Amino acid sequence: MLLCDVGNTNIHFYKDGISWGKKADIKNINLIDEKFYYICVNERLKDKMASMRNAVDLEPFFNLDTIYKGLGVDRVAACYAIDNGIVVDAGSAITVDIMANGIHLGGYIMPGLSAQQESFRRISSRLDIRINPNIDLEIIPQNSLEAVSYGVVKPIVKMLSETKKDKKIFFTGGDGKFFAKFFKDAIFDNSLVFRGMLKVLDELKKDKNA
Questions:
Q1: Which regions of 16-136 does DSSP assign to beta strands (E)?
Q2: Which has fewest Cβ within 10 Å: 74, 101, 169, 177?
Q3: Which SS3 state, helix, strand or coil, does residue 56 take?
Q4: pLDDT tens for residues 113-142?
């Protein structure tokens, strides 16, 4: 069974426990010749996806208990995979969602690392610096590399800590593993969205057999 998570930058695929990614390009969708299930947040590709006879859109089948308006289907799918905890999808944007007993309590969005790096680049060429993956948030920086990295990463980690409190925290997305290391009990699961999709498919199968 092939699953596809169609994002704005990349398409992520999942089959038999293995996941991989490709650029969000129409040619990478045209190459699929088997039946597959998908979710899509890419407005450029939605019509193409809907026109494919071998593609099944799972978005209408999610039944997440929430009053949040405008929750993207990728966030819905990730939240669907867990009942309790904080879901952090750290990609181009960082989305944070709170789940309690299967109910979505709300969430918030922050710029991701790449977006913040780009904003510093526009301010000054001297601030065109990549985030230091080994930044120590306990030491006040003494150079620009550390200063930019500290100024970007620490506010995000602090906000996540305040949201987390005593809850479990689940990370996914391209920068999920990076942020997970700042929390001793964090769970990094890059298949979280696919787990939510598989849960929907399992529910549909049960309904069909009922």
A1: 18-23, 36-40, 55-57, 85-90, 93-100, 103-111
A2: 101
A3: strand
A4: 999 999 998 999 888 888 999 999 999 999
Q: Tell me, yes or no, if 47 is annotated catalytic.
A: no
Contact 4, 38 (CB under 8 A): yes
What is this structure's pTM? 0.90
Task: Please tell me the distance from the alpha carbon of residue 40 to that of residue 57, in angstroms, as a whole number.
Answer: 8
> What residue ranges define each of the domains in the chain, with the CATH number in brackets?
2-57 (3.30.420.40), 73-195 (3.30.420.40)
Q: What are φ and ψ of residue 127, in 5° steps?
A: -105, 15
C-alpha of 31 from chain center: 25
Q: Is 142 exposed, middle or buried (0-12, 13-18, 19+ CB in 10 A)?
A: exposed
Q: What span, in angstroms and rounded, lies between the C-alpha atoms of 136 and 42?
A: 36
SS3 196: helix
User: Per-residue pLDDT tens for 147-201?
Assistant: 999 999 999 999 999 999 999 999 999 999 999 999 999 999 999 999 999 999 9
d(CA 121, CA 130): 10
Q: Which two tokens stand for residue 124?
A: 């000054």
**In the structure encoding, which two tokens stand for residue 199, read together?**
């849960």
